[in-house]
């Protein structure tokens, strides 16, 4: 492994944690973001202002670095492609895959093409949706681009709902709503020659925003998960994917697993890997071009839980100080209610106890 | 716990790892060092050039921050005191303690005053040393200031040795040489209200430079260690010490423990705590002014070993890539033979196996 320079497009907590893992490897991360107060901007001397449009900073830094990584799917792959020219080969994932995966329509199509189980996709023509509503189908509309943490997701229950969104139906996909019993997530690390899987985890969302994660999940033993694991590995191999990728899953009462969506990057549900494993998702993501020798499945020495520290709207936010938890505070300049401000990881013999302690520390009732 | 700003004087790996722990807490670390290529300079947007003398940068940053920390004892406490004026109260450890501990003469005197076991101290008058040499006493000379990794330490075996150093005897202390069977180290974290101890570890030096550390050491069960632990806690309480502090120990064949020296800061022998514990030494050091509630003794869920990655003189240095070790590479601009360039931590059921794997990875014969 040699010293590498990398560019990270984005200034949020995911970029911040990637940069810090780059430092552990002795690498130099260049952060491109819009404000020097951004979480990731603070942690690197090599911060470069980028407004998201100006070609110059992007071109210049791209010429200096070995690899280019993205914090989110909110970038415009066509714009980046135009700016980078031949340097676009430095991007991971490739701009083609980013384009395919960032749009929920093409992402979903990709699942269908590879026989990956997911909820039924409906045509978003108004007449089709009208008829489905009349049949009392439970439907979900999701924005094709820029959705996150539940923003851009709506239930479609009535003609009124449909009327209110009629003008912009093109920018949504429509899926059958899944009555799940559990939400799960699984992350893969794809290197040049090898694919490793993290333990399956259970996630819990409130108001569509992740509140906690615990694992390893005993649902790993389901036949349906073993099947899915095989299919996902084949999918990633075919796609020649490089880096960390997370699949959010629904588990139904008849033990079926359906893919909700994928995130072609590091993901909140695998933050625990920072503290529970020598090979965490941020390190794995930036190491994706190395010839890494890792086991098919990575296992944690201990059970774990992760709880998100959501904004209270009050700055500074009071965080209890405790010696037995791993605190990661993202130092966001604006503390908005419900915003992901940080997270805690708890390790131990029993994931339920880890979660209980985590919820207690953040003042959440234990359900 | 509120958002804090801290100043770290120094740009090496210890400052780098402190800064990265500050970021995890959401704090802002200001790094003062002589080059923007320094290991710690790279990891913070808030790097300020300081030549080690100029009062202005120090004064300015001191006025911005809540606390001031030192990477090493190589700073001049009198100079810092003059520059900082009242802001000197922000320093941890206090400049008085830094002054006492950085000089091996006053450090040793402190051990004697507090009935802490250590090797016999001899007067460094030439006539005294001459007579001791004639009695075939085994003697060690240590530079009072600026010694590290064996630099500044000499054996004094003959009249010739004595003649060669006669002119500068004032700048040394002379100790009886200890025929130890093992070298051990113990680190304490001192907070506002509480003292916590890390597991006792065994250390191995080659050419006076730390090659590896493993633990927890079963020598913790020695009566002599229990006695020493009690004395050290009393010593730290009396001294009103704040932050991490490490005592390097000699174990003799009759199970006696003697203090070799102390380091009033984070220390190589406790680097493993970064990966083996939620409360590592870098985090504990900067949190020393918090009202922290920690157990008397911190325990690790797993056994551990740490191996130093010493410079080969070749840059870039080839590091094997492996998924089951925690790599910390310091990104020093100059790769000198034997220089501490990085370290690896290995966790597992069995510290001997961890160490074996670590030594194998760095290409060292397993003794």
What would you note in describing this structure?
The structure is a homodimer of 367-residue chains. Chain A is α+β, with helices and mostly antiparallel strands. Chain A has three domains: 5-92, Rossmann fold; 120-176, Dna Ligase, domain 1 (2-Layer Sandwich); 180-361, ATP-grasp fold, B domain (D-amino Acid Aminotransferase, Chain A, domain 1). Chain A is 28% helix and 28% strand. The first copy, chain A, is built from eleven helices and 18 strands. Chain A has helices at residues 13-24, 55-64, 77-84, 95-102, 104-113, 126-134, 159-165, 223-238, 273-276, 281-286, 351-361, and strands spanning 5-9, 28-33, 47-49, 67-70, 91-92, 121-122, 139-143, 153-156, 172-176, 180-190, 195-197, 201-206, 209-215, 243-252, 257-263, 303-310, 326-329, 340-348. In chain A, the strands form three sheets. In chain A, strands 10, 11, 12, 13, 14, 15, 16, 17 and 18 form a nine-stranded antiparallel β-sheet that branches. Chain A has a five-stranded parallel β-sheet with strand order 3-2-1-4-5, with helices on both faces. In chain A, strand 4, helix 3 and strand 5 form a beta-alpha-beta unit. In chain A, helix 3 runs antiparallel to helix 4 and helix 4 crosses helix 5 (104-113). The N and C termini of chain A lie far apart (46 Å). The relative contact order of chain A is 0.12. At the A-B interface, helix 1, strand 17 and strand 18 of A face helix 1, strand 17 and strand 18 of B.
